[in-house]
Amino acid sequence: MLTPWGLFLCQLVINTSYHVIKASLCLGGSDIFATVSENSPVGEFIANLSIIGDPTGVNSIRLCLTGENANWFYLEGRTIRLNSSVLRVLDRERQGSVLMAALTCYEDDIIQSEYRVIVEILNENDNKPKFFEKTIQPRYISELTAVNSVVFTVKAIDADGDTITYIIDRALPDASYFRIDLPNSGKVILDKPLDYETKTQLQLVIYAVETNTKEWYNTSASLTVHVKDGDDQYPQFLPCTPISQDNKHTVVCTNPLYTVNITEKDQDMLLNFSPGPIHAEDGDRSLDTPLLYSILSGADKNRFQIDNQTAEITLTRRVENRHLTPTFRLRIMASQLNDPKKYSVATALVRVLAENRFPPLFNRTTYKGFIVENSSPATLVSTYGNEVLLIQVIDQDFVDGVNPKMHYSLPPTSATTALYHITQEGVIIAKTDRLRPFERHFLEVVAMDEESGEVAKASVDIELLQRGQPVPRTPFGEERLFRDMDVRMAGGIMGGMLLLLVAILFLLIRWAKRRRRRDPARRGAVILGKHPNVDLHEPCHPLQAP
């Protein structure tokens, strides 16, 4: 007979056995460790459950997935599958490298067991490198930056963790300014000097390339490099006179020669130079450093003074004798205010002239010229009477009216001026082979006094005659008038001469009659053939005293 204690132990054994049998369907399971590749399709197999019971059987059990990543899985019997979709793709770079959930087994709504589900997401090379935006922003680099120095660094990241190499696209012309010595560093090095005056902006393309994958995914970034002006240029007097140009299209200039004319009576006046005004600019145009002007030599004891900011030159006192000092040569320096060692020097020439009282004048406002058709490439333009057309001005400041400093020119006012050339003697030469008969051209002749700058103008009316056509002797209408006048004058003269001869003959006859009556001896002498002043008798000589 069992004791109460023995009865209790027996009941405990019976109850325990009953629960083991009852919960045996959730037994046999374990924690699940599995792997799945990112971008796997929906329903991708994850793992099989090792529990005894079948959730779809008669004595069913209930399985539940819980936890942060439980929604990435679903149960299909005793199989766990991936719960992805077209709109929700498993991405290791977004979800992380591991998905974790809990699998709970219920029997009669009583938790019988709980297992961990740990799924590692396997990486696939599905991302391209991507530059950090702040590393590919426009760059500003001074032209004074030393060659071989690191000017900037680019940085890209690959979400798949691949190794990235940086490469400069050498197809662009500006790529020659830069290089990358350590391909994985992204450090861009200046490979040759920059020059703001030659190029102010550079374009660069850099690639970030995966080098440890078979796909070799890459991405590119375009960078703009702005070259900042550095203080490396000296002042330059204007206007610039180009003398050469290098292969970088950099123009090399020389300083101009400034000139001005004064007279002996001039004093206390600003000088207007040509080309003018005297002015210099900092060679680094974007810096535009202020300049100071000074006269290095030729000031002649302050006869000439310069404004150190505007470069205006003043003549303070008159020149006593222009024959002793016909010219003054001033050496003018423009230096940077912040760096006097950066300077430039130009020459200003002051010429002392005699007082100019009379302007140059043409003796007529319009000249008439003719050209006869011929095959010669060049012909002198003639005027009436087939004389060479000579165009000259008169300057009464000279005794003979001829100013040796007078310069003649034909301004390019029309297409016809290209057909003519005027010499400094005032002779016009025409390109005959390019002219046609019956054409008529009007030219403007400008005569300029190269010393005083005074100008006189005249026009030339040129008519092209057909081959063989004579050049008129006088202006139209005047020749006929002169011809008629000549005929009338000739008739009048002939009539007057005839009357004069008749009168003279009448007077001679009367005079001869009177002589005959008064001098019979003369008449006899004439009859004897003697000269009337010869005596017919021997002369009587008087006796002379002994």
State the distance separating the first and last CA atoms: 248 Å
Strand content: 35-45%
- Computed over alpha carbons, the radius of gyration is 60 Å
The first-level CATH class of the largest domain is given as Mainly Beta
Report the strand count.
Answer: 38
In terms of quaternary structure, what is this? single chain
State mean pLDDT (0 to 100 scale).
Answer: 83
Q: SS-based structural class?
A: mainly beta
Looking at the structure, the CATH topology of the largest domain is: Immunoglobulin-like
Instruction: Give the helix level as a range of percent.
Output: 10-25%
Task: Estimate the global geometry from the Cα principal axes.
Answer: elongated
Tell me the strand order in the biggest sheet.
1-7-6-3
CATH superfamily placement of the largest domain: Cadherins
Low-confidence stretches: 1-23, 477-485, 519-546
Q: Please outline the major beta sheet.
A: 4 strands, mixed
Number of helices: 4
Q: What's the number of domains?
A: 5
CATH architecture designation of the largest domain? Sandwich
Protein name: Cadherin domain-containing protein
Subcellular location: Membrane
InterPro entries: Cadherin (IPR039808), Cadherin-like_dom (IPR002126), Cadherin-like_sf (IPR015919)
Organism: Oncorhynchus tshawytscha (Chinook salmon)
What does the secondary structure layout of this molecule look like, with pairings?
Layout: H1 4-22, E1 32-37, E2 45-48, E3 62-66, E4 73-76, E5 79-82, H2 92-95, E6 98-107, E7 110-122, E8 130-131, E9 139-142, E10 150-153, E11 156-157, E12 164-168, E13 178-179, E14 187-190, E15 201-210, E16 218-228, E17 236-238, E18 241-245, E19 251-254, E20 257-263, E21 269-270, E22 279-281, E23 291-297, E24 304-306, E25 313-315, E26 327-336, E27 343-353, E28 361-362, E29 366-372, E30 379-380, E31 382-383, E32 387-388, E33 393-394, E34 406-409, E35 420-422, E36 428-430, E37 440-449, E38 455-465, H3 478-518, H4 520-528
Parallel strand pairs: 1-7, 9-16, 20-27, 29-38
Antiparallel strand pairs: 2-5, 3-6, 4-5, 6-7, 8-11, 10-14, 12-15, 13-14, 15-16, 17-22, 18-19, 21-25, 23-26, 24-25, 26-27, 28-33, 30-36, 31-32, 34-37, 35-36, 37-38
Protein name: Cadherin domain-containing protein
GO molecular function: beta-catenin binding; cadherin binding; calcium ion binding
Organism: Oncorhynchus tshawytscha (Chinook salmon)
